[in-house]
Every structure is written in C-alpha cells, then in structure tokens.
Amino acid sequence: MKLASIRLIAADIKAMVAFYELVTGQTADWLVPQFAEIVTPAATIAIGSAETVALFSEGSAEPRANRTAILEFMVDDVDAVFDRLKGKVELVHEPKLLPWGNRTFQIRDPEGSTVSLFMPFTDTAKARFGSR
Fold this sequence. Notes:
Blueprint (H helix, E strand, L loop, with lengths): L4 E6 L2 H12 L4 E4 L2 E5 L4 E6 L20 E5 L3 H8 L4 E8 L4 E7 L5 E7 L2 H6 L4
Parallel strand pairs: 1-4, 5-8
Antiparallel strand pairs: 2-3, 3-4, 6-7, 7-8
C-alpha cells in the first residue's frame, strides 16, 4: 500500500490552492474548476471544492472542520522557509526544536488545517529520516 494523496475539502478552493502553491513552490494542476492537485515528490495534495463531497456521500466531509490532522512537509532549511512565508500565512508557532529532534514551525491553511514544516535536526532525527 502506498499513500497517494491527501485530499482537502475547501469552501474557497482558489484560496486553498494558492496557499499550497505558495507553501510548496509547486503549481497546481486544475483537472476541473472544482478540483486541483499539487504533486510533490512524496505525495499529492488534492483539493476539492465543497461541492465535490456530494459525488461521494453528501455530508461525509466539510470544509473548515478539521482540528485533528497536521499536514507535515520536510524541508531542507526550516528557517529559510519560515523567512519566506513569514507575514504571508497565519502562524501557529515560530521555529522551535521538538522533543523528538525535529526543528519545526506551524501555520494554518485558509480552511484552518494545521501545516507543519520541519527538518530533522538532532542526530537521532537525522538517522530516522536517513539524512546523516
């Protein structure tokens, strides 16, 4: 099994796509006006408008309702990414070292989901990600 994508449901799909284009530096592929994908080396971020939910099951997902998942992106230099995004996105916290060895900062996307940008910082964390 391979995780292929994370799908986010958006009340304002244009704002969500613009946010993830800014964060990832990738351009979205708009398959239809209600659905876009941003392909990263590890997985795809699929963004569907709220109206796409009815294609599966009405009410099975809703925009702006998530407070349990954190989308995480590993970057080469967390401080450089923080400097690039500072003032352009809603900040949850500034860069700091977490107990498990990652240096990270968190932001919120336009629908309220938490996005974490991190880099392995300690030797133990680097070993976990194969980046000694």
